[in-house]
Amino acid sequence: MQIETFTAEVKRVLCVVAHPDDMEYGASAAVAHWTNSGAHVAYLLLTHGEAGMQRSPDEAARVRPEEQRAACATVGVDQLTILDHPDGVLEMTLDLRRDIAREIRRFEPDTVLTSTWDVEPTWGGLNQADHRVAGLSVVDAIAAAGNRWIFPELITEGFQPHAVTRLMVTGSTPTHAVVVDRADVDRAVASLQCHTAYLADLPNHPVPSEFIPEALAGAGQIVGADHAVAFRVFEMR
User: Fold this and answer.
1) Which DSSP string corresponds to 45-80?
2) Contact present, 118 and 78 (Cβ < 8 Å)
3) What is d(CA 185, CA 28) in angstroms, rounded to the nearest whole number?
4) Cystine design at 211: which of 31, 40, 131, 206 (Cβ 3.0–4.6 Å)?
5) Distance CA 229, CA 29 (A)
6) How many Å is the Cα radius of gyration of the chain?
């Protein structure tokens, strides 16, 4: 499959992922690029990430959102919403789909970004269960957000249907790459480094300043750039 340079203009991007830190493994470089170009980018997290650390869920649920807020600030994101679905046991429920559709209607993005639902993502290994549920739930929520007959209670709440222009997916076989500069790469590294307590609980975690630039350089080579972020892009109809 040929990979093209992503050149479409984005003005409002909603990034929907399962956990704090999910955006910080490369995708935040594209976010830094977009916000620097004047786009408004918001993050929607489906859980507080309370099951992802070697400490009590209560403590993790306090620590991880604070680290995520700091990470957002490094890439120009000033709008962070965290839902209260359970970490580690996320399920494809109608409640989850409705919650995501509500936020799509509230923010009215032209572009929605999420992580892959593939069992074997491009970054290697096997994809975590919450990531798979999040990705597929986003696909269904985009359809629901644009259809007034799905979740009509959202209209009662004041949220009119909204049609998303495109879906961008990380970790799946890419179709496009967003070219980023070194400053974007550095901000992406800094955004992951903001998850200080989280990374401290993962002693064998690779060094952000080493693996993120390397991964983005690999994507850049495909489109003849120094660095890029690869996505699978779906134009929504």
Assistant:
1) ESS--TTSSSS-HHHHHHHHHHHHHHHHHHTT--EE
2) no
3) 8
4) 206
5) 7
6) 17
Which residue type does 206 have? Answer: P
DSSP-derived 3-state class of residue 206 = coil
- Token pair 């550095």 is found at 186
In contact, 191 and 75? CB cutoff 8 Å:
yes
75 with 110: CB under 8 angstroms?
no
Report the length, in residues, of the chain. 237
- Of 69, 68, 49, 67, nearest to 58 by C-alpha is 49
Report d(CA 164, CA 33) in Å as an integer.
21
| Phi, psi angles (nearest 5°) of residue 13 | -120, 130
d(CA 177, CA 2): 11
Nearest CA to 32 out of 67, 79, 70, 76 is that of 76
Over the chain (237 residues), the average pLDDT of each successive run of 10 is 91 98 98 98 98 94 97 98 98 98 98 98 95 98 98 98 98 97 98 97 94 97 97 94
SS3 at position 141: helix
- Residue pair 109/13 in contact (Cβ under 8 Å)? The answer is yes
